[in-house]
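G., the chain you wanted modeled:
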Amino acid sequence: MDVSPSEKSNWFEGHPRSIIIGLILISFLVLDALFANGYKLIAGHPWGSGYLTIERSYRIRSPVYHHTLASNASSDCARWGPMTYRIRTNSLGFKDKAVRDVPLVSDKHRIVFMGDSFTEGVGYEYERTFVGLTDSALSQKGIEVLNAAVCGYSPIIYWRKTAHLIEDVGLHFDELVVFPDVSDAIDETRRFLNENGNVTEYSPKKLPTGDSQIGLTKDMEEGDRHILSTGLSKKFKEWLRNNTIVSFSAFKLGHRLFNIARGDKGYAINEQAAYWTIDDRSDPPIGEEGLPKIETYVDRLFELTKTHNIKLTVVVFPNPDQVYYADSNSVWVSFWKNWCQRHDVPLLDCFPLLVRSQAIREREQTLDRYYLPSDFHFNENGARLIANAFLDFYTASAN
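Predicted structure as tokens:
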């Protein structure tokens, strides 16, 4: 039935408050979008992604092993999610306590750590990471520690970068300690060697190509990740993020408050990169595709260290998924136990330190105590736990 003009007029007259509120909201959104796009036009990037300019100043491409940190870099505005921290790199492009020149040959016993963002220690100054804490303890014994880890690394890069450091750069060291991450399996599925024997990768479907190619993984926008994957139209939410300032901030706050109200603890769980050890329903399965590739390149890494008389040690640790789901008999641990046993390589298994209880509340307490909120990575308690475990292991192995 058609609505007469008088009925329409009566509806508008009968809802003046709703109309005024609607007009105010629309006007606010338009002004917000105009201001945000004006900022983007002047600054060259959206309001919320200005940190990428800083990150790209020291997270750079490598023609040999995909990406690295710039040498002798210094920034007091490094970003990881909501965290701002100080970062310094040395002459080798390794995260360090200060900008400094590192001699290629040292008269000290030298240990190089290799891994991804866990081992780089994103979010914290070097001294507060588990590598930095280990460095502080071992330096008192005349042992030098270097951290070659960078966000987004995986075994193909562990091997290729180590080979480059030894054979091309001429770096001499005595031990290599590798911290493989559960997410390495999915990273390996998209990486390969090009015709020159250097690391390249297929563009990940879900990541901005420019960011992923220099190691700025999806974790860099940890606060937006869950928001964009749930609820309203994804395209509208992405439009809000890229074209507004106050509106998207209000939407994020409302989303978080809603999740808290319904009991969401905000843990970084159920993400494909780590959840695959719990339930691998990917097509093809991440474990089936990624683990053989991991084995290929850690075999090469083993042969490389053996050739150069470098002691190799492997350390495995759980992500929040493995803690939350009590994945104590993880396929990840089994893989590394079997590999290390076959190659007679020492293995430090940190799973028992964190995956200990069948009670869900105790597992949540572990996540609260040792991991960053809504993030995969260790907080300072977690860094201290891993550092102490390694130091105990290292001391026991030396005796």
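The chain has two domains: 1-44, 49-220+266-398.

Shout if anything looks off.
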